[in-house]
């Protein structure tokens, strides 16, 4: 897929599952559980041990799922992630130097931004989707204030999103979501079926609002 096709699929699916773990061996069971729950796009963060290897593993095991790299804060990480097979990059920060690098490889960038100036800077330098982060701390009213004058931009909101409030965020104009611990944290670490069921619940909520 080319950059536009990947971006369009991300916008269509509206859900990117964020995998950030302390132990590498936890990654693949979580990936499997998310995929079984219907997740079609996921990111493995750079502060997960062995994240490059796990991106490669996920690409091999699940060729019909988009696999990206998260917490990509600089060009070095961007290059490493792209070489490992990441199909999209997600940042927590505005680091515009990585955008031309990613685009030269056909890889879209979901760039983290918070203030109007950061959002506009990311957009003007070619970010494909804006990641409003941390959305939950600043809340719906803040997002609405940002979205009002910048309503032509695509916003994925990240931080503090749950099945209890995702409908409100969609009604406020969110184009998609990045969801981490709300999806991947297990009450019973030996029961990844929890993740599968939570993924299904999030997807049902999103589909109900479309």
TrEMBL record:
One of its GO terms (molecular function) is lyase activity. Keywords: Carbohydrate metabolism, Lyase. SUPFAM superfamilies: Aldolase. InterPro entries: Aldlse_KDPG_KHG (IPR000887), Aldolase_TIM (IPR013785), KDPG/KHG_AS_2 (IPR031338). Pathway: Carbohydrate acid metabolism. It comes from the Bacteria. Homotrimer. Belongs to the KHG/KDPG aldolase family. This is 2-dehydro-3-deoxyphosphogluconate aldolase. It comes from Flagellimonas olearia.
């Amino acid at each position: 897929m080319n950059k536009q096709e990947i971006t369009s699929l991300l916008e269509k699916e509206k859900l990117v599952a964020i995998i950030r773990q302390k132990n590498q061996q936890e990654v693949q069971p979580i990936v499997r559980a998310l995929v079984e729950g219907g997740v079609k796009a996921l990111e493995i963060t750079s502060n997960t041990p062995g994240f490059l290897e796990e991106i490669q593993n996920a690409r091999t095991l699940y060729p019909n799922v988009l696999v990206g790299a998260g917490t990509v804060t600089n060009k070095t990480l961007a290059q490493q992630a792209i070489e490992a097979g990441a199909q999209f990059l997600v940042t927590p920060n505005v680091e515009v130097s990585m955008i031309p690098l990613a685009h030269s490889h056909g890889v879209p960038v979901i760039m983290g931004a918070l203030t109007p100036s950061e959002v506009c800077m990311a957009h003007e330098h070619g970010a494909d989707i804006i990641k409003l982060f941390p959305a939950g701390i600043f809340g719906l009213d803040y997002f609405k204030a940002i979205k009002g004058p910048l309503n032509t931009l695509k916003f994925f909101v990240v931080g503090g999103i749950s099945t209890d409030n995702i409908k409100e965020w969609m009604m406020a104009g969110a184009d998609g979501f990045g969801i981490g611990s709300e999806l991947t944290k297990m009450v019973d670490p030996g029961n990844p079926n929890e993740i599968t069921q939570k993924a299904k619940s999030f997807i049902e909520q999103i589909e109900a609002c479309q």
